[in-house]
Specification:
elongated
């Protein structure tokens, strides 16, 4: 049940009014997700790596969008890959 609550909170993060609430949700995520995992350390590492990767892709996506808006050349393959990854992440959001 805690995992479902956490995933719901993460999906709703863009609409959370307070940045402090979002920060607390992100900080609590690994502990809540990994609470029943047999190897908590490995689970924490995986969750933190995933969060870092999503953050990196979000930054790359923003850069690609800015380059497109400015009419600048962007690495077509990299931006295509980033768009695909972001579309997948968007598909995970609950309505």
């Amino acid at each position: 049940m805690n995992r479902l609550w956490l995933l719901g909170m993460l999906a709703a993060t863009p609409v959370i009014a307070s940045a402090n609430d979002a920060l607390m949700t992100f900080q609590q995520a690994p502990a809540l997700i990994c609470q029943d995992h047999a190897n908590k350390e490995a689970c924490f590492t995986a969750i933190q790596g995933l969060m870092g990767a999503v953050n990196g892709y979000a930054k790359l996506n923003q850069q690609c969008q800015q380059k497109e808006a400015q009419g600048a050349e962007a690495s077509a393959q990299q931006c295509s890959d980033v768009k695909e990854a972001m579309a997948y992440l968007d598909s995970l959001k609950s309505d």
